[in-house]
Amino acid sequence: MKGKWKYLPALLCMIAIFAASSRSGDQLDSVLPWFQRWLPFLSDFNPMHYVAYFALALTIAYGMGRLAAEWRGCLLNIVVCVLYGITDEWHQSFVPMRSPDPLDLLHDGMGAAAASLLVLLLLRLFNRRRSRNYTGS
After folding, report:
1. What is the C-alpha R_g of the chain?
2. Residue 95 placed within a domain
3. Is the pLDDT assigned to residue 36 strictly greater than 90?
4. Taking every pair of C-alpha atoms in the chain, what is the biggest distance, in angstroms?
């Protein structure tokens, strides 16, 4: 993919987060037992904030390309995810039996930070190894 199309996975991830956030509390409670069959330790959907925003940050890093291997790209990625998290929490204030929660936003930011830092470290490690193996022609 080239150019702005590289952000398509991030847009799709944002749409998935928006769709999940649009579910009422009753709707979420009705599907929780299905998830608990696969993840018995899951007592609610709070851990999904880490997962969703980890995935969002990975897709944003993909769109960023080389910028994701720089500290400013890493920080920009986290800021974009947290800003989207703020809009998501605001959106939830309009959904029945849902409310904005600052702790959810913290979890969103932690998931995004973990993914952004992981990408930064892996890309730097990959680039370092690649530059050591460069022999020149």
Report:
1. 18
2. yes
3. no
4. 64
